[in-house]
Amino acid sequence: MNFDFSDEQKQLRDSARRFLEKQSSVAVVRRVLEGDEGYDRELWQGLAEMGFTGAAIPEEFGGAGLGYLELCVIAEELGRAVAPVPFSSTVYLAAEFLLAAGNDAQKKNYLPKIAAGEVIGTFAYAETAGEVTAERIKATVSGGKLSGTKIPVADGAIADFAVVAAQGGSGLGLYLVDLTGPGVTRTVVDTIDPSRKHARIVFDGAPVEQLGAGNAEAVIEAVYDRAAVLTAFEQVGGSDRALEMARDYALERIAFGRQIGSFQAIKHILADMYVSATLARSNCYWGAYALSTGSAELPEAAASCRVSATRAFQHCSTNNIQVHGGMGFTWQFDCHLYYKRSNLLALNLGSLSVWENRLIARMRARNSARDAA
Amino acid sequence: MNFDDTPEEAAFRQEARAWIAANAPKHLKEELELSGFGGLYLKSEDPMQAGKAWQKKKAEAGWACLHWPKEYGGRGATPIERVIWGQEEGVYAKLSGLFTIGHGMCGPTVMAWGSEEAKRERLPTLASGEEIWCQLFSEPAAGSDLAGLRTRAEQATDGSGDWIINGQKIWTSGAQHSQWGLLLTRTDPNVPKHKGLTMFFLDMRSPGVEVRPIRQMNDQRTFNEVFFENVRIPDSQRLGPVGAGWNVSLTTLMNERLSIGSGMPTGFPDLLDFAIATGDVDNPAVRAKLADWSVKASGLKFTAFRALSALSKGETPGPENSIGKLVAGAMMQDIAKYAMDLQGEAGILTNAADAEARGKFQAMALRSPATRIEGGSDEILRNIIAERVLNLPADVRVDKDVPFNAIPTSGRK
Amino acid sequence: MNFDDTPEEAKFRAEVREWISANAPHDLDEDLKKSGLAGLRLPGRDIMAESKAWQKKKADAGWAVPHWPKEYGGRGATPIERVIWQQEEGLYNQLAQPFAIGQGMCGPTVMAYASEDLKRKYLPKLASGEEIWCQLFSEPAGGSDVAALRTRAEKADGSDEWVINGQKIWTSGAQYSDYGILLTRTDPNVPKHAGLTMFIVDMKAPGVEVRPIHQMNGGRGFNEVFFENVRIHDSHRLGAVNDGWNVALTTLMNERMSIGSRLATGFPEIFGFVADFQLPDGPAIDNAAVRAKLADWAVKSSGLRYTAFRAISSLSKGERPGPENSIGKLVAGVMTQDIAKYAMELQAEAGVLTSQEDAPAAALFQNMVLNSPGMRIAGGTDEILRNIIAERVLGLPGDVRVDKNVPFNQAPGR
């Protein structure tokens, strides 16, 4: 059994961590958090130069052709650094939609530019509150023109293009839209984590190009599963960092004449954080295995690591503040960067309760299939 | 057992209700109702002016701090009358946030330890809202372990008897609006930490006092750092004997925990309204969650009623109320997260114009972490319940008999 | 990243599988499948006899304790081969229960500290199941705080023997054990960890009395053991006099590190239950509230499974597993308890029934509810496990120990 990353992948992790410690320092994250700039350009360029944006893009489309295990490794480090870049929207979603449904021309048009860090892409899906379902999507394509409103769209104000889910002639379809073209109005909206900007996009007769034919719902589900694994790695990276911050503070801070980490009330909080972070990491390894091998277990593994990592990151980021006490609630300390990111990632790709329901439905389907066989 | 008023209570309630109906700022009612935990949405008026105006009006009619003696600005009401007033004042009480600490903590401490002259000078303007007070206890190195504070008070060498203050406080709510402050200082660093403390009240406009707002993670600035550089306080503003500051502070903290416990927001009514409005209430998974929070909310409410009954009979309430903040703090955080979960991908939106329920739950998510820390962290509250209610022994205190200046200050090796 | 065996591992697995398929007691398959969290049930058969028979068969073919050296009854298997053996033994591993403490804890301690003579004398029979061992550590006043124990060992005047007086408690299997490892206090005038000594004790020796404890679930798996002037020869001392605490750590380490031994969580059981159980509006598994609960347990259960796989991977590469596995019992204990309660809740009024005939799911969950409080205590309470994670994994300081440098007989509570 070799249920672990390889030595090369661990080296990749080390170099990603070193790179991000420098290029995605807390100062960089805060600049995006407090500023109007939608992301950190230098960091984004650096990630492309390191080959990270194209890690899982095949070489024929200009990528590094490394693979999904490498992308998982990178995702964990991005999460650990709460990196303020449009990585998830461009790499986990836009690129994956192109790979899953794009024709050769579409792939050739966009993927090399994604790998080179020359374009930012995103997926425009939700329109209203609550679980996104095909019936709730009102955006419509007619005569090659898209109309409707999407909110919230990750990196919507800075993206060059979007994959948009909209009602077409034969039900829900996927469309490529040039966001810098006509018929597109974008406004930045306030979110729980301003270090990752989101937008409202109003389409009013924007020209579109169809992305793939057939059942868009199945494609969305498949791409969301893949993105869920990668996002879960970001969440695990964030969980670990929050745990480390809390541990370090518990060792440094003195109350009642001793390190607060010597009190069981604090120790047990930290032990429980370690437990949830460990469970999430192990589930994520399963997700990484399924994603990288194209295993039939992917839907179940993806939902498992999504649920486990969402819980872990929220748990660790919340208790990191608790261990820090009042200082943890200040803007000055970094705890809130992780708290905000954990709340954002919990909802990007759909909420915990939606994934919980999905997980059990999938486990049930697998069991029924097994019993039938 | 019943929830009915006695005839006297009913008469009092009638009087309060009539006065409120005739005098409350009804034009603010709607906005006040929309205000949730983590933000007062008062757009039509300046919250400070609106708060002061309502307090002034109450004071003139004898409804400010009504349980205080008349000579200090109250109306000598009984504890149960105070509670009835609170129930009748309803949403308008949200205007009194500015005065909570002064009325709930500083006032009672001055009343218990101040000279008659100090009481007559300071308490009526505190009651009427003309002057705002803050509480200067916590310090960077003294939070849960309050007695670890370092702000020094030294008697002036000029024979005036004045005290000279140097040091820093933190987490001072409302310091930027306050005219007066209740200040806990260290007067003797050579004795164990609880023994070298002394309490004062001071004029926040004194030379050498500097207030710096703290930017919080929710981008509000309600807490402050307060710096003292050679600030002079006359000895007449000392509360209690020199070296007895710890005992004096217990008066304040006792009042803090009692008043915070009464009517802590939990977020439950907000969530229930939201789930009904969206139809999520029909989902069994949502119902299971709602039911759990519902019984916690009602449990807190009726625990408070039990304390009220004790007050009504002229008895001292039991320790039950100490569970209030511990339950409500964590609950509010969980509820905020869950409401956002129900909102799906749109749950990340925070602007009142875009977000569901005007962003109320997102504001709650960003404010609630502090609830589990301020005025006693969850961990300290559990210790208090275990030690004072259940009579378990206190934790081992390694700094107990150690001179204050010999206690370690950092765990870094 | 994969779950595949290396060629050597695959070859070993094939060999194991072939031997098991040819030799296992297949007539017990049905009953073993039905057992599990509710405890081993072999209607109409003597569990101990069946267990000893299977263990003997394994021993004769060299499969008894595969990772022990050959000369002590093992086959010198690698750590990863040991895990493969466990995976393949599967169901039949339930029959090894009576030997678990002896082989998992007593054996390694004897191996580390006993003389060569004693190792050759005791270990092969411990491996083959001919002799059963128990562990005598906990006492009424020394539970989580094991080092607070009071059972005295005093050197008899002018002889090479020690005289033991005192009482142990929570001793699993003492009623059928032949030997035990016994932790005693030899010097009460020094701080508590410094005055302990470990021995091998013959459970049939004069002065040893075993009294089963009647548990809240009706079972009697644990015992009190009383010692009255029991004599042990000095040759049966394990480690130096007053070094018993270090010796005990070897044992406890082995207790907490047994990787690959699958921890019961109750999740497969409840998942199977809700798939069939009907609520008024259909199968319980289709109810959103049930799904929310299940999802939480599902990811904990898979999290534990893949955490174990990570440790196994380290073994496969010849590395030492990381500390991740320390979370296992902490997660599984609470989870079993919660799952059992929730299943009973779904059963509603019928949930109070406990007999196999009347209760839903053959009373599996009722049994779990009554067993699970013990799981959260035995072998380290949840609280102790959190301390271990905080201190050994995260590097936090130990709690303030008021009894640290105090002679044992002057510590509070004496």
Automatic annotation (TrEMBL), chain A:
<comment type="similarity">
    <text>Belongs to the acyl-CoA dehydrogenase family.</text>
</comment>
<dbReference type="GO" id="GO:0050660">
    <property type="term" value="F:flavin adenine dinucleotide binding"/>
</dbReference>
<dbReference type="InterPro" id="IPR009075">
    <property type="entry name" value="AcylCo_DH/oxidase_C"/>
</dbReference>
<dbReference type="InterPro" id="IPR037069">
    <property type="entry name" value="AcylCoA_DH/ox_N_sf"/>
</dbReference>
<dbReference type="GO" id="GO:0003995">
    <property type="term" value="F:acyl-CoA dehydrogenase activity"/>
</dbReference>
<dbReference type="InterPro" id="IPR036250">
    <property type="entry name" value="AcylCo_DH-like_C"/>
</dbReference>
<keyword id="KW-0285">Flavoprotein</keyword>
<dbReference type="InterPro" id="IPR046373">
    <property type="entry name" value="Acyl-CoA_Oxase/DH_mid-dom_sf"/>
</dbReference>
<feature type="domain" description="Acyl-CoA dehydrogenase/oxidase C-terminal">
    <location>
        <begin position="225"/>
        <end position="354"/>
    </location>
</feature>
<feature type="domain" description="Acyl-CoA dehydrogenase/oxidase N-terminal">
    <location>
        <begin position="6"/>
        <end position="118"/>
    </location>
</feature>
<protein>
    <submittedName>
        <fullName>Acyl-CoA dehydrogenase</fullName>
    </submittedName>
</protein>
<dbReference type="InterPro" id="IPR009100">
    <property type="entry name" value="AcylCoA_DH/oxidase_NM_dom_sf"/>
</dbReference>
<keyword id="KW-0274">FAD</keyword>
<dbReference type="Pfam" id="PF00441">
    <property type="entry name" value="Acyl-CoA_dh_1"/>
</dbReference>
<dbReference type="InterPro" id="IPR013786">
    <property type="entry name" value="AcylCoA_DH/ox_N"/>
</dbReference>
From TrEMBL, chain B:
<protein>
    <recommendedName>
        <fullName>Alkylation response protein AidB-like acyl-CoA dehydrogenase</fullName>
    </recommendedName>
</protein>
<dbReference type="GO" id="GO:0016627">
    <property type="term" value="F:oxidoreductase activity, acting on the CH-CH group of donors"/>
</dbReference>
<keyword id="KW-0274">FAD</keyword>
<feature type="domain" description="Acyl-CoA oxidase/dehydrogenase middle">
    <location>
        <begin position="134"/>
        <end position="231"/>
    </location>
</feature>
<keyword id="KW-0285">Flavoprotein</keyword>
<keyword id="KW-0560">Oxidoreductase</keyword>
<dbReference type="InterPro" id="IPR037069">
    <property type="entry name" value="AcylCoA_DH/ox_N_sf"/>
</dbReference>
<dbReference type="InterPro" id="IPR009100">
    <property type="entry name" value="AcylCoA_DH/oxidase_NM_dom_sf"/>
</dbReference>
<dbReference type="InterPro" id="IPR036250">
    <property type="entry name" value="AcylCo_DH-like_C"/>
</dbReference>
<dbReference type="InterPro" id="IPR052161">
    <property type="entry name" value="Mycobact_Acyl-CoA_DH"/>
</dbReference>
<comment type="similarity">
    <text>Belongs to the acyl-CoA dehydrogenase family.</text>
</comment>
<dbReference type="GO" id="GO:0005886">
    <property type="term" value="C:plasma membrane"/>
</dbReference>
<feature type="domain" description="Acyl-CoA dehydrogenase/oxidase C-terminal">
    <location>
        <begin position="243"/>
        <end position="390"/>
    </location>
</feature>
<dbReference type="GO" id="GO:0050660">
    <property type="term" value="F:flavin adenine dinucleotide binding"/>
</dbReference>
<dbReference type="Pfam" id="PF00441">
    <property type="entry name" value="Acyl-CoA_dh_1"/>
</dbReference>
UniProtKB/TrEMBL annotation, chain C:
<protein>
    <recommendedName>
        <fullName>Acyl-CoA dehydrogenase</fullName>
    </recommendedName>
</protein>
<dbReference type="GO" id="GO:0016627">
    <property type="term" value="F:oxidoreductase activity, acting on the CH-CH group of donors"/>
</dbReference>
<keyword id="KW-0274">FAD</keyword>
<dbReference type="GO" id="GO:0005886">
    <property type="term" value="C:plasma membrane"/>
</dbReference>
<dbReference type="InterPro" id="IPR036250">
    <property type="entry name" value="AcylCo_DH-like_C"/>
</dbReference>
<dbReference type="Pfam" id="PF02770">
    <property type="entry name" value="Acyl-CoA_dh_M"/>
</dbReference>
<dbReference type="Pfam" id="PF02771">
    <property type="entry name" value="Acyl-CoA_dh_N"/>
</dbReference>
<keyword id="KW-0285">Flavoprotein</keyword>
<comment type="similarity">
    <text>Belongs to the acyl-CoA dehydrogenase family.</text>
</comment>
<dbReference type="Pfam" id="PF00441">
    <property type="entry name" value="Acyl-CoA_dh_1"/>
</dbReference>
<dbReference type="InterPro" id="IPR037069">
    <property type="entry name" value="AcylCoA_DH/ox_N_sf"/>
</dbReference>
<dbReference type="InterPro" id="IPR052161">
    <property type="entry name" value="Mycobact_Acyl-CoA_DH"/>
</dbReference>
<dbReference type="InterPro" id="IPR006091">
    <property type="entry name" value="Acyl-CoA_Oxase/DH_mid-dom"/>
</dbReference>
<dbReference type="InterPro" id="IPR046373">
    <property type="entry name" value="Acyl-CoA_Oxase/DH_mid-dom_sf"/>
</dbReference>
<keyword id="KW-0560">Oxidoreductase</keyword>
